[in-house]
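Lab meeting notes turned into a lecture example. A postdoc, R.K., suggested we walk through two folding results consecutively so the class can see how the record format repeats. The first protein's sequence and C-alpha cells come next.
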Amino acid sequence: MISARRTARAVGTLMLAGFFLYGIGTSIAATASPSALLTTGAVMMLLNSVAVVAVGALMLPVLRPHAAAVAVGYLATRIFEGAFLAVGAIALLAGFGNINFLAYNIAMAGLGVGSLFFCVALYRSRLVPRFLAVWGFVGYASFAAGCFLELSEVAGAGLVASVPGGLFEIFFAIWLIARGFASTAAIAVTAPA
C-alpha cells in the first residue's frame, strides 16, 4: 500500500511541477533575448519533458493490471509529448519560435488523443472516482481538438480548448497527492512481478 501511495504522490507532484516548469520556462524563454534567461527558460522546459515521461513510467505498473495495452500506450503518449516539447525548447534556444509553436501543438494533440484511452482505463478500473475519469476524457478531447485547430491555423483555439483539460490535470494531480489511487491500485503496484 505504501508503494501505491508514493506512486500517486509522485505522479501528482510531477504533473503539478510540469505546469510550473513549462509555464514559467516558456514565459522566460519566449520573451528573453539570447541570454542566460533564455537558457534558464529552455532548461525548465526540458525538465518538464523529463517530468512528463516520468508520469507515464510511474503510471505503467499502476495501469498494467487493469489495462496492459493502455498502460504501454500511455507511456508512449508521454514519451511522444516529452520528445516534441524538448524539440520545441531546443528550437527556442536556436531562435526558431515558430518550430516551438508547432512542436507544442503536436505534443499536446498527441497527449490529448493518447490520454483518452488513459481516461477510459481510469473509468473502468475505478482507480480514481469516475467523475474524474469523465472530466479527463472531456478535457483531453477538447484539448486535442483545440491543438488540431491551432495546427490548422485557427488562432487561439488551443488556448480556449485547453481550459477543461488543464483544470482536470491540476485537480487530478491534487487528488493523487491528497487521496491517492483506489485500494485496487495498492495490490497491483505492490504485487511481486
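The second example is placed directly after the first for contrast:
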Amino acid sequence: MPNLVVDIGNTALKAAWADGVTLGKTYRYQGERMIDFILSLTVKDRPDTLVVASVREISGQDEIRLGAVCSTLVLVDPRNRNVYTSRDIPSYLSPDRFASIMAVRYLFKGRGCTVFDFGTTLTIDFIDASGKYSGGNISPGCRTRFKSLNRYSRTLPLLDTPDSVEELGTSLVSSVESGVISGIIFELQGYFAVNPENIVVFTGGDAIYFAKRVKNAIFVVCNLVLMGLAIVADEYVE
C-alpha cells in the first residue's frame, strides 16, 4: 500500500498519500482532534509507512494508536529527532524545515538553494551545492505581523493580506498594508543578495502571493514539506 505522510504545523494539519516520492490526494484539517483525523484516513487503506512530523510532542498513547494502523511508524516531533542525525541536518530545526531540506536536496541536487516558507513564521534556510545545511533565520510571518501591530498598539486596526498594495500608504489602512507587505519584500530581496547564484524556492500558504510580487525567478513548491516526508517514508520502505 502507499505511504501516508502528515505535517502538523502551528495552525493546521496537512496530509497526503504518497507512492514513493510522488504525492497523491492531499488533505487539510484545522481542529483539535488531529490524531483522530489521521486515523480516519487509514480506515480504508493501511499505509506501509506512516510519517508524522509535528511541532507538538506526540504523546505515548497517541504513538500507540498511530502505530497500530501502519506497518512502520516514523515520528518527527520535539522528542523524536533521531531521523535528523543520519541526514546531517541540525536537530534544533523544526520538523517542517527538516522536511523542506530533504525535498530540495532531492529536487535540486547539486545546486545551492535558498528556501522561504511563508506561514505563521517566515523561515529562510540555505543549502549549499553539496546538500549541506548552511544555516537559516526565522522572522514573523505575514499574518503574524498584521496581528502584532493590532495587538501591541492602541490605534492600528487588525487587517488581513490585501489583494493589492500601494507603494506608499495614503491612509491608516494602506500604510499598515504597505508597511507589512513591502517590508517582507525588502526582506526577501536582502536574502536573494546573500547567495545570488542559489535557486530560490518558495513554499507555505503565502508563497504564491509573494512570488507574484518579486522579480526574481522563483520555484513555488506548495507541498514541499509533504514531499520531504514522502522521501523519508520511501527510505524506510526500501
